[in-house]
Design brief:
four-stranded mixed β-sheet; 14 helices; 28 strands; single chain; Seminal Fluid Protein  PDC-109 (Domain B); alpha+beta
Length: 554
């Protein structure tokens, strides 16, 4: 067959899970495919067929499959490279027919071997095609070249040297130096290596010498000396600081013992605080279940969404009342009974006030001092939680305090006492039952006020704020008057519901032409054409069902 590909190796990265790796080049046998694993550290290990992997080969390609426990790990590199043996097994027998197949196989093998040599040659260090070197060989024996380096001499030829350069000692003027000669600058103790062959001149230091460009600094001893001096100073400072640290450590040890004691005390205090907090939270929760705070409407559960308990309270912001939850499962406004109100009134008596002044005596004050005991203060502390303070803060606002001050005046107290009497309470309850009517009146207060401007009662005719249609009752004449737009006219009562227009009217149907009956009203004309009269009769169920008349006179 022909060999059309020059590929002799494949490279892959392992990942710890992929076991199969393919190749696409010819091999004469599976034994001539070498498998190498390179670790992340650069160590190369040649693996063994059957022990570490198996090969499935098809002419010109195939797959290497690693066995369980030998799959390349993450960070490892897999190299598949052909390594054809260097033997020649083809034998030509004289006078036999030409063995073309064997001959072609031998040529294929030679080609594969040449490709592998080329692959190795490609990895070798070598001169370029245009470069020259007298010889790439060196004759120094293994003993003489041991622990030495391969270098190029001044002619560019390969040589084996002891060091990177040749030590020449201290630098001197007018001295011939070769490439890689090493000298010491005695003025700075720096070490230099020659970059160019030359005869030295001038003086030290080399860094300012006219030949400074021909030297390269190997060891910066001057900087090292400066650093050593600084390090010595730092070491001295460190020693001082270490002593100070030791003293601080001793002090810290004492503080540590104190801190340990205080930590123990703090733990005890913390535990006590936690206990107190638990008790306070329980008390707050209990209080919160009993006083629900301000609500715009009656709540159906407590603040924890639990069932209401008998005696629970809340302040209704809509009616400004406090309500209590009764044993009959209903909210009831808190207000005194008539007998209780009597007792309250009794407290306003001068004698009671005198008695109250007795409470300000030193003995009573001393008794009140008992209220300042820790147990009582602790109970009062329960009232100081944010929720309770917030509720009391509402009661302490300027507007509410001002309103309470107004209610506390003697006149208002007397008036409120009067309002609490049995008969008044009943009347108030009656008004409360008709509150919708009261609200209707309030909604139409503008009309009520307007009526007060349209109808007035006076002993003489009003002369201001007059509008056509206004009414006033004259208390002197006991007559009702209306304003026709320019003057007041009396409204005369008619007991027989008849209207007499004229005693000498001779026009037939005159009155019928002047009066138009409304709904629920009938008109009967009398004496048509001579002294006409008109009888007006209501035909509605009641007088209120009759519609007003429209009268045109003139």
């Amino acid at each position: 067959m022909t060999v059309s590909s020059t590929t002799v190796k494949k490279s892959y990265n392992g990942n710890g899970s992929t076991a199969g790796f393919t190749y696409d080049f010819l091999i004469n046998s599976t034994a001539e495919l070498k498998v190498i694993i390179r670790s992340s550290a650069g160590t190369e290990t040649v693996k063994s067929l059957s022990s570490h992997y198996n090969i499935s080969d098809s002419v010109g390609s195939g797959t290497v499959t690693f066995t369980s426990g030998n799959i390349p790990a993450n960070g490892e590199t897999v190299i598949l490279i052909r390594d054809t043996n260097l033997t020649q097994g083809t034998d030509y027998v004289e006078n036999d027919p030409f063995p073309s197949a064997s001959h072609e196989s031998a040529l294929d093998k030679l080609t594969l071997q040449v490709q592998e040599v080329q692959e190795e040659l490609d990895r070798a260090i070598k001169l370029s095609r245009t470069n020259t070197m007298t010889s790439t060989q060196f004759t120094v024996g293994s003993t003489d070249r041991a622990s030495k380096v391969l270098a190029f001499d001044s002619s560019g030829e390969i040589s084996v040297t002891q060091e990177l350069g040749t030590v020449k000692g201290n630098w001197g003027a007018s001295t011939a130096y070769a490439i890689r000669d090493i000298v010491k600058d005695t003025s700075t103790n720096n070490i230099f290596i020659a970059l160019t062959a030359h005869t030295s001149s001038g003086s030290q230091p080399i860094t300012t010498n006219t030949d400074s460009a021909k030297w390269s600094l190997l060891v910066d001893a001057a900087s090292a000396t400066s650093s050593a001096s600084a390090a010595s100073g730092s070491a001295s400072t460190a020693t001082t600081k270490a002593n100070e640290a030791a003293a601080s450590a001793s002090t810290a040890s004492g503080h540590k013992d104190t801190a340990t004691t205080k930590a123990s005390e703090a733990t005890t205090a913390k535990n006590a605080a936690v206990t107190a907090q638990t008790a306070a939270e329980a008390a707050l929760d209990s209080f919160d279940d009993r006083y629900l705070g301000a609500k715009s409407s009656a709540p159906s559960t407590d603040n924890d969404s639990n069932a209401l308990i008998t005696g629970a309270l809340y302040f209704n912001t809509s009616s400004n009342q406090i309500f209590a939850w009764t044993s009959s499962d209903a909210w009831e406004a808190i207000k005194p009974t008539s007998s209780e109100q009597t007792n309250i009134n009794a407290l306003s008596a001068s004698a009671v006030i005198t008695d109250m002044s007795l409470l300000a005596t030193s003995a009573v004050i001393e008794d009140m001092g008992l209220l300042a005991t820790s147990a009582v203060i602790e109970d009062l502390g329960l009232l100081a939680v944010s929720g309770v303070i917030e509720d009391m803060g509402i009661l302490a606002t300027t507007a509410i305090v001002e309103d309470l001050g107004i209610l506390a005046t003697s006149t208002n107290v007397t008036n409120m006492a009067a309002l609490s009497a049995g008969g008044v309470v009943g009347n108030i309850a009656t008004v409360a039952g008709a509150v919708s009517n009261v609200n209707t009146t309030a909604s139409n207060i503008a009309g009520v006020n307007s009526f007060a401007e349209r109808y007035r009662i006076a002993s003489s005719a009003p002369s201001s704020s007059l509008n056509e249609g206004d009414l006033y009752y004259d208390t002197n004449a006991n007559t009702l008057n209306f304003y026709n737009g320019s003057a007041w006219s009396a409204i005369v009562a008619d007991t027989d519901v008849k209207v007499l227009v004229s005693s000498n009217d001779s026009t037939a149907g005159f009155l019928n032409g002047k009066i138009v009956a409304g709904t629920g009203i009938s008109l009967t004309e009398n004496n048509n054409g001579s002294n006409e009269t008109l009888t007006i009769t209501s035909t509605g169920a009641t007088l209120d069902d009759a519609t007003a008349l429209s009268i045109a006179l003139g």
